[in-house]
Request: fold
Amino acid sequence: MHTSVVRDYPVKPGGFRFTNATYQGCFVDSPPGYCTALIDYGAVLNTVFDQRLGTACDALRQGRVDEVWLWGGPWFGYLEWRLVPGGTLCPAVRKPFVVMGFSYERGEPEMLHDLGHRAEGLIQTGIGFGIWDRFDGQRGRYGQDFACPAQPDASHPEVDATDAHAGNVHFPPNAYCHYQYDRDFGVLSDADDWANFPDLTGRRTVLNSNTWGGTQQGFLIWWLGRFPRHAGFASGVERDWWRYVYFATRTVHA
Reply:
C-alpha cells in the first residue's frame, strides 16, 4: 500500500478547482453547480501528486498498486466506487481497475456501504441477475423513494416474511424502506444457505435486526459474510464471489 497526502482540491471538468472561498460557498441550501460536479477522473489519475510514485496511472502500470482510494471532504466529487476499463483513463494500464471514493466526514459504516455497492455491481456483472436476485431478493426496491413510513404502504410494500433472502446494501431481508437496518420484524430467510453455493440445501432460518446488531455496520458485515467463498467454478460462475469484488481484472470484462 502506498499513501500520498495531497494538500489541494481535486480538479473537476473544465479544469475547475475549488479555492477555499468557492469551497465554503457549497455549504448553503442551494449550492452552485460546480459543487455537485464529479472530479475529472482522467486528470486526477494522470497528475503527479507524489514524486515517489508518479501518477496513479504510473503506479498501476508498474504494478505497485492494484486500485486507487481517494479520500476527501464533502463536495469533492468522488463516486463511491468506479470500475475503470483497461486502456481508457490510464491508456497504458491494460486491465480494468477500481477507484474508491471516501469522505472524511463519514466513518467505517459508510466505507463498508461503498464496498457493498462495489460488491453488488461487480458480482452482478460476474454471475448474472438470475443468481444474484435469488441471493438478494430485494433489488427491485432500489427504485423506491427514500421516505420510510411508520408502516408499510403501497409505495413501500411489506416483505414476504416466509420467503426472504440476504437483501442488499440498502435493504436488509426484512426491510420495506431504504436503510432500515434496525427493524425487528422476523423473516424466514435462506441467507445462511448461500455459504453452500452452488449446492444450496434449502435451509432457512428466522432472522431480524438482532441477527446483525441493529446497525448499518453490523448489517453490512453480516451481509458481506453471506457471500460464498469456495475454490473453483460452477457452470462458469466463480464459487468464491469475493474474486469478483477484488479481482476485477480477472473476472469482469468491462
